[in-house]
Amino acid sequence: MATGGPEDALPGSGLLGGRRGRATLVMLALRIAYAYNWFDLGPALPAISSEFGLAPTAWGELVAVFLVGAGLLQVPSGLLARRYGTRAVSIAGAALLGVAGVAAGLAPSFPALLVLRFVGGAGAGLFFSPAIALVGQLYPEGERGVPVGTFSSAFSAGAGLGIFGPALLVPLIGWRGSFVVGGVVLVALLLPALRAVPRTVGPPPPADRRAPTGVPAALRSRGVWAIGIAFIGLEGASLSAAQYFVPFAETIQGWTPALAGAVGALFVFPSFFGGPPGGHVAERFASRRTQMILATALPSALLVLVPVAGLAATCAIAVTFSFGFGMVYAMMYVVAPYLPGIRADEVSLAIGLLNAIQISGGAAVAQVTAFVVEHDGYTWAWVSLAGLVLLPLAALAFVPVIQRPGEAPKPGPE
To answer: For the whole model, what pTM was predicted?
Structure first.
């Protein structure tokens, strides 16, 4: 993997030492607040339905429209990062997501709420791939696995808060107040981020910011496309399980909102602990396809048991699924820069394409799940989620051999 020169890494020791530690911590805080604004929708769905008179199919629309906005901006965010730098684009995306979250809490109608969720998704799309490339650029090559894995899995901490927190907030201040809280917190973190993350991190933007000619290697990478397609189902299942579990637990299981929110958070929060080992595995070992399949297949197959599981078993299923999810996503983001032909200034673009493929497919999975809930019930929805995760894994057969850190890069683009 090519590097961007001495500006690639900040001085510091270990994961959180020196200037890189401060920059990493504030990026982790942004990542958590960003994820909160993804997942604060689920506990609010019944209240939104009551106010606007919606059927469960509309839940899928609210989930999907955010994912569409996030998916559409993934590749443009990588292209913008090549021209303006990862720092500028990621912070701009976080700002847009935060403002849209506040505005969503003031939405006068369901169509307005749909539009604002789309705008929030667009901000999320602008933030993520430049941000994860930026975190990698804080560290020298060979030391990026754990910090990138930690950053990836911080999404789960925010997602868990985004399920559990609103499950408590909505009964107290309403779904509107819950949305406003999430947006305000994210916006408030922007000033510390601007101060902590130097402008010099990463490859410098080109002097000539006109759009470069030709199709970037990241967009032509067989490995990027194969990995993206392989985990469409996992993306959709992680979002659907987290967003729909609270209504399922309240209406079918008869659980209280607090209990439903706490258990629902287990579908995302434990992946925080899967990220660092997943990042370590991806940067230190060669057999990544097998490890990705193992971390995906068994936990996802357990989803079929959710409708018949008791409280303890549901918690175990959720933790297992979430931990595996965290490992897989960390592995994907660490592996991306080592795919043949990916240059340092195209890392965010490669990750953006991965996310665009997965989020677009995940939006479809979320919509299908909502349809199944409405027409066939929650039992078949959980069964279909498991199947939709397992089938696309066949695409991993098309992932090329990936060099280990320290090996000579594969020559030229694929």
So the answer is: 0.70
